[in-house]
């Protein structure tokens, strides 16, 4: 809506200057992330300020004054450094200038006027973070500018820029934006202009409007209008006819068949590639599978099919006699003393006998005197108890 002043209509004017202060519980990193629609690491709060995915952010950029270090163009580094430079719990972290873009101003000029407004402050030593917002129907285009509050040095930030503290800063910002916007509107012959003065200063009796902020009902209505517009676009551009759909489906089926054939060939090629055996040596996959099958069959082999060796005492008498004679022949072999001592070990060896002062026993000679026979199991009549009469009868019956 525009008011008429003489032959020139006056467009709606809105500009607001705000402080982003730690005393109000605010964070410069979080404010920058919200306005840029990004996720920024918040070092002071040890978490991320996550505002990614906003759909109303059209453009963001950082404008640097002359002589500013290049790292200040990084949004995360810039505002984390601002937070680190302020030590007081009520520090003013940034200055924000928010202003509405006239609806009569075409979209392709929004960035130009926002940059011109920002450069007016970079020339005075401020770092300016610009974000242009607009809803889907461009009914509320506006610009957020976050300004640093300290002088810029080669090492970072210096002293506070106190000119931003007074009322003069606000009135100058309002007049500056009116001048920039009206110049742009005049170049395109829009026939409207904005006026930074109040109604009272202009002699207008109309009650000033108040900034309501976002209205959920209006936003919902705008989304519905936008969805209806998209539906009308689909009606004007209908889906392809049945013949066209059939052709597309046939192409998709052909692509699926080609992908499946390619995957099958890749699987066949992998079958011939060597694989490591349990010892790490490369073998053919067929050999590995055959070995695994054999191992499974052997593990499942019935125990009754495994041949058993009878115990010595159950062997036939002639076999026991032959075994005993073989052992006797072995025992009759002369063994040198050195070799005999090498494999005979005395039982119950006491490794702490040095504590009682007694000499260590000669285990080898003790073994020789005792005459241990470790093969006496071959003489069952010496070890097996004599069977009773009942056992002898059962044995004869078997």
Overview of this protein structure:
The chain is of the alpha+beta class and 398 residues long. 42% of the residues lie in helices and 16% in strands. It contains 13 helices and 14 strands. The strands form five sheets. Strands 3-7-9-8-6 form a five-stranded antiparallel beta sheet, sandwiched between helices. A three-stranded mixed beta sheet has the order 1-2-12. Strand 1 and strand 2 form a beta hairpin. Helix 1 packs antiparallel against helix 2 (75-85). The radius of gyration is 49 Å and the shape is elongated. The termini are far apart.
Briefly, what is this?
Helix content is about 40%, strand content about 15%. It is α+β, with helices and mostly antiparallel strands.
Descriptors for this entry?
single chain; 398 residues; alpha+beta; 5-stranded antiparallel β-sheet; 3-stranded mixed β-sheet; elongated; disordered N terminus
Task: Assess the beta-strand content as a share of residues.
Answer: 15-25%
Q: Please give the order of strands in the largest beta sheet.
A: 3-7-9-8-6
Largest pleated sheet = 5 strands, antiparallel
What Rg do the Cα atoms give?
Answer: 49 Å
Mean pLDDT: 79
Q: Total number of helical segments?
A: 13
Low-confidence stretches: 1-7, 363-370
Strand segment count: 14
Judging from the principal axes of the Cα atoms, what is the shape? elongated
Q: Specify the helix fraction band.
A: 40-55%
- The helix/strand order is EEEHEEEHEHEEEEHEHHHEEHHHHHH
**How far is it from the N-terminal to the C-terminal residue, by CA?**
123 Å
